[in-house]
Amino acid sequence: MNIFDLAGSAAEPAGAVCSRKACRAHAEWQLLWNNPKIHTPERRKIWLACPEHRAWLEDYLQTRGLWKETLSLDSPAGEAAAEDGPGSAVAPGRAG
Length: 96
Ligand SMILES: [Zn+2]
Prior knowledge:
Bound molecules: zinc ion
Helix content: 10-25%
Distance between the termini: 30 Å
Number of strands: 3
Strand order of the largest sheet: 2-1-3
Number of helices: 2
């Protein structure tokens, strides 16, 4: 599963676009999340976020207990997500 597979062939403009409803801004972040009610634990869904909406989307997921990790869009999600442990790109030391 590679988010970049989605780009290029569809009618969407080139590049990643923020997942926030009605936002057409260029995304710079990817929010990795998992819903334990419908996904296996290792599964990762990815939302894209522009800088303006990154915090909004993180809060949305964290409120529901779905948020896992936020990575720069430059990071290959598959490899980064394979690491289980400290090393989150955001708020190091805030765990707990
Ligand atoms: Zn946005």
